[in-house]
Please model this.
Amino acid sequence: MDVPGSKSAANRALVLAALADGPGWVRGAPDARDIRLMIDALRALGHDLQVHDSSAGTVDVFIQPRPMHGPALIDVGLAGTVMRFVPPVAVLAEGSVTFDGDAHARQRPMAELLRGLRTLGASVSDTDGFLPCTVNGKGGLPGGSVQIDASASSQFVSGLLLAGCRYQDGITIEHVGDRVPSQPHIEMTLTMLRERGVHATSSSAQLADRVPARWTVSPGSLSAVDCRIEPDLSNAAVFMAAALVTGGQVTIANWPAVTTQAGDAMRALLPMLGGEVVLDEQGCSVRGHGVIQGIDIDMHDIGELTPTIAALCALADAPSRLRGIAHLRGHETDRLAGIVTDIRALGGDATETDDGLVINPTSLHGGIWRAFADHRMATAGAIIGLRVPGVVVDDIACTTKTLPDFGERWQRMLDAAQAC
Model:
């Protein structure tokens, strides 16, 4: 089966295209809410973006960069990539740019990003480090060196790096604090900058807690490119999990041989849970045997996969412990609390720890699985519903945040399995 392009890569590509030296394309982006919010945000700053329907569930976007200006009001929805990537761009505009979004967006951490922008010379007003906030752009930014604590979100680092080459002195970011989560996303940012001719470096992989990490982007040109977005592997993970639950087989087409996406970790995780994984010219194929094994793993760098893996653990035949994911409390919802609440609502045994979850095997029953307006929570409920009759996800529509037509795709997969 095909999966639309990566939201994470597409929104980075859109930002970089808007900052480039000339017009460019972003092809194969998912036609999802987070993408539309980014397109609208860049348009609000003055850029010319033309959206063309592509294959099912995807769009091609042509971007003609224009001088940026305010006043502008940007709706970030619940998209972390919009609320944290666009303010570092908005400081380059002339005029004020105000950011706000969904109710829960006002609870997601922003303080370190905004403090970092002030240190670099920006004028920013906010409400105690949360949305709404206003960036008073002056047409440029001195840039230079800044220390931030990015332990709550790697997006603080990526947001500053994406715009950094357009700052007068570039940018050097030093992280101070506990480990930065979701390191593959920072590597994705650095890789995409290098592909566009930007000199971008990192000095540490942070192999242990409190090891300093430093990233530098030099000032200079940013080449326009014709960029095709690879499939979203974290969204693909949900369909791969279905194979384990049902004892079936799923093949995800066009799986990249080399990628910085966190979802690629599913190739290693699923065998630990009892599945078989093969990557070949057909794509990435997963076969399940109907029995799911418990797992004990640090998911700090791949936290976005937690709801999917937790759903599998709720159906496992042995206890599981997911560690290193305290930062998920600041995502679209408090994912740790949400997972525990939902599993318990179905009769399961799940407990929060300081940095993760413990899930013990038990018999589950039907009931309401709350999505909490979070796309990953909604798809986790769909996974459990494959084995437990009577599970109803209360808001499956919220999956449009990153995966258009999830319900239809899920049903087509099930129909194909029954026809075999």
Summary: The first strand starts at residue 24 and ends at 30. The two ends are 15 Å apart (CA to CA). The chain has two domains: 7-217, 233-419.
